[in-house]
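Deliverable D2.4 — example input (structure tokens):
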């Protein structure tokens, strides 16, 4: 009899835990904004993760609300790599932006976001703190774009990067090394990935100020709209 009571109690605990997990998962899903991109190549929807990259998501959503992306193009398309857009209009005029958003790549990485196929990440210059409005969508696993985790310690006893081993390196030196920042992933394509695949395969060449990788037939973002 005691055995069955224990089983019953365990079942209630498991059921309660499962219910809590289900509620938490549902709540998270409800707080994940979704943006629909209507393009000349078709439509796709991205889901954003403010719980993993809050400042980046808020920055992106403000550009969406400001209609910044409407009328812009995918100006850099590299098959088997990524598609990039959000910065230039159809005449290759760069649109004005707000101040850069703080880089959140390492925080997002710690919470499971990597540059895997279909993920959305912020584009930037060589300066890790330069991301504004431009974004890219990975069309393959681009692990080399992920931030590099820094081992514990100060100085860091041993750190290996691209075949080189560094010993007793000041932590701040590694944290501030530009080549270790990577790119901030903050969302994922949840529908219409076939449209992204279509865009990545479009023939490219020179266009506007760019010598390569510009779609010969412009891929226009007609609108980017918050749908959830």
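Example output (designed residues):
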């Amino acid at each position: 009899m005691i055995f069955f009571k224990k089983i019953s109690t365990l079942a209630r605990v498991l059921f309660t835990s499962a219910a809590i997990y289900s509620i938490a998962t549902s709540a998270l899903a409800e707080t994940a904004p979704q943006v629909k991109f209507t393009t000349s190549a078709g439509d796709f929807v991205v889901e954003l993760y403010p719980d993993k990259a809050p400042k980046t998501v808020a920055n992106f959503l403000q550009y969406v609300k400001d209609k910044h992306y409407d009328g812009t193009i995918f100006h850099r398309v590299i098959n088997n790599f990524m598609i990039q857009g959000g910065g230039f209009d159809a005449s290759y005029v760069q649109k004005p932006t707000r101040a850069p958003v703080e880089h959140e790549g390492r925080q997002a990485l710690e919470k499971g976001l990597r540059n895997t196929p279909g993920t959305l990440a912020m584009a930037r210059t060589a300066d890790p703190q330069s991301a504004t409005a431009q974004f890219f969508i990975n069309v393959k696993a681009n692990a080399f774009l992920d931030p590099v985790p820094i081992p514990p310690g100060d100085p860091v006893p041993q750190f290996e990067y691209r075949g080189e081993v560094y010993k007793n390196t000041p932590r701040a030196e590694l944290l501030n090394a530009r080549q270790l920042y990577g790119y901030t992933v903050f969302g994922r394509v949840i529908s219409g990935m076939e449209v992204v695949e279509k865009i990545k395969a479009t023939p490219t060449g020179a266009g506007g100020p760019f010598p390569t990788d510009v779609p010969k037939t412009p891929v226009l973002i007609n609108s980017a709209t918050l749908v959830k």
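Residues 2-31 form the longest helix (30 residues).
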